[in-house]
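pls ignore typos typing on phone
beta-L-arabinofuranose + seq
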Amino acid sequence: MRIPLACLVSVLLAVGPALAQTTASPAPGGNPIIKNKYTADPAAMVQGGTVYLYTGHDEAPAPQERYVMHEWLCFSSTDMVNWTEHPVPLKVSDFTWAKDDAWASQVIARNGKFYWYAAVEHGSVPGKAIGVAVADNPAGPFKDARGSALITNAMTESKISWDDIDPTVIIDKKGQAYLFWGNTICRYAKLKANMTELDGPIQTVTGLPRFTEAPWVHEHNGWYYLSFATEFPEKIAYAMSRSLDGPWEYKGLLNEIAGNSNTNHQAIIDFKGKSYFIYHNGGINTAGSSYRRSVCIDYLNYNKDGTLKRVQMTTEGVQPAK
Ligand code: FUB
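k done
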């Protein structure tokens, strides 16, 4: 059958904008899950039958060994194997008060809106800071929700200027939102229902031995889990509690050092009846490294008493979720 050229052109014009909105990742399956660009610091959010994966973007050209990160990325999947990119929902420049360094982040839903908490280098307060952006759609576009940082380095005392990084957010059963973050010291504070202001003092989490960074807090069967990067190069360890205010009981290691990367940075979700451990390594041949990282996914398994089995990192990754 011959299709008239005018007809073909009108069809292409009609689907063009839709194609521009999403980009399929080539060759799905296995780890790393995204093979056409470097992705780091995963955070994931389940919305109905879809998982949204938010990552940093390692842009350092080889052989540079330093973080070059100017934007965050968003991918979605209905099976944890086939991922579609939604470019580019948030950049450092969307926070006019920020200077650089699109470091770790997390998105959470509340009242039909989506709040993206992200670490950046502040433009005028020396050190790292945490901003929050908001959108009506999980894939954005996101815009700065405050016009200023939610957390600055001046609000916390530490010997280092990069202690205010790696935000993770959770809302408890009573609707109280909590923000956790930190490097070398794990801190937390309650958030107001508007999700853009602190609702009380900044406090310190105790009982996390050799805490480095990358806290991630999740709930499963009535337990709260605070997983975090420990030591350097990083392994992932975890603690459990019945309350987000603690006390947290340290339970040991969850994941070993990830291949070819001195950081590991995990996210944990339940989806379609299985639990997933999402992290990064430096495994892409030939230029993968601690500064050209790639997100991977493997299964997470619970023991009957709620404790976690050690993660098995694999190159095969996970099977399509049904
Ligand atoms: O990507 C920059 C930093 O490296 C993150 O904030 C840390 O968690 C580590 O992964």
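The chain has one helix and 22 strands. The chain has a mean pLDDT of 93. more later
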